[in-house]
UniProtKB/TrEMBL annotation:
Residues 1-22 form the signal peptide. This is Outer membrane protein beta-barrel domain-containing protein. The lineage of its organism: Bacteria, Pseudomonadati, Bacteroidota, Cytophagia, Cytophagales. Keywords: Signal.
Amino acid sequence: MKQFYSLLMALPIALTLSAARAQGSPQAETLGTNAAASAVRRPAMVRLGVGESVNGSGDYSMLKTFIEYAPQVGRHCRLGSRLAYIGGSQPSDFGYGFVVPRSYRALNLEQEVYWLPFGLNKTVEFSLGAGAFVGYSKQKGFSQGGFNTADLNGNQSFSYVPANEKGFNVGYIGSLNVDFALNAARTWRLGGRLALQNDTRANILPGGQFQLSRAL
């Protein structure tokens, strides 16, 4: 997982340097003119994303996948409306065959506003996002657990206090995004995002996902 996040963190730097070189060439200016015209015909992006999200206590990683509709607003903004699923499980092993199940599942409607300081429809799009989400989540875990004092025969018993929650929640989300054009028309893009979200159940979920985008 560390290699996954290292790759995502290195992606913005590499792609931004590539964009700086490409956008200074005559070819980039020609492509920029064509892209500006294309923006009128293709004002929105559809994105599919998949990657990881870490549970609130940072104990284990989970799958996060989403589909997003992202229309452009002006020359430096996009709106991102997503349907996202987050889920995963990892039991806590106390040894001697005693295992406590832990899991998290959530289905969220997420809304972000992306600010693109260098503009839209570039070879490399860099954006900062902020927004909110509402969803339904179900979490299983425990607040405490361990072995009790041995009895007269030297046997120990194990016990734990369950901490299970479910219900609707709301929260905020922030992200750093980079998308690299895969073709000259800039209709296909591949990129990544690093995000942090927090909900009313105090579940802080940092994570990173790869995303594939298609201009409409």
